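Thread: quick sanity check before group meeting

JM: Hey all, I'm pulling together slides for Thursday and realized we never actually wrote out the predicted structure for the chain we discussed last week. Dropping the sequence here so it's in one place. If anyone has concerns about the input, flag it before I start.
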Amino acid sequence: MQILGFNKLTLLDYPEHVGSTIFTGGCNFRCPFCQNGDLVLNPETVEPFSLDEVLKTLKERVGRVEGVCITGGEPTLQPDLIPFISEVKALGLKVKLDTNGYRPDVLSEILNQKLVDYVAMDIKNSKEKYGKTVGIAHFDTAPIEHSVNMLMQSSIDYEFRTTVVKELHDKNDFAAIGEWIKGAPKYFLQGYVESDNVLCKGFSAYEKDELESFRELLLKYIKHVEIRGL
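JM (edit): ok, ran it. Output follows.
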């Protein structure tokens, strides 16, 4: 398990819970607006955390934290993700998994074994613009669609979310996304924020009133839509 970041305390990453956050290295996407450039492009340059030390720290913090958010990078690329989650669960902690949805085989095994308590899956864009948004030409959305369907048919608590970038998303995209995930319980629009770790600089964010217009459109399809990051 390649752990390249460890935030011992977070009030933001796990909804309604005090938690810790673990960042894994590597990703199969190249989203140009990604905020974790080093973890995606150069994971070998980041000093890893000892797995034993992370588990020891989590054990010591049981009672002060309620759960662990596993994010990245893309966690489902880690070959020993499932054994790691099992060890975290054995401590009595809840687990939230952040994923881009490209490994429905791994997600299926995790859900079938009831290893996570919450899943946050990215919807990068409308299907037609997925390849451009994830930085992969001729991208096949079939695995993403499989993961979406799997979550929507499961009993797990989950959310879909999109980081909204002015140069990549427009009203028509959110109408298409709304049709795609119609009936999902929760969908979050996350305002883009420029930072030193972004893969490609030069993108911009929509104003709050513009995001609110997207939110109003999406409420036709999804009961609970919120804006994060503003």
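AS: nice. The CA atoms of residues 184 and 222 lie 6 Å apart. DSSP finds eight helices and eight strands in the chain.
JM: adding both to the slides.
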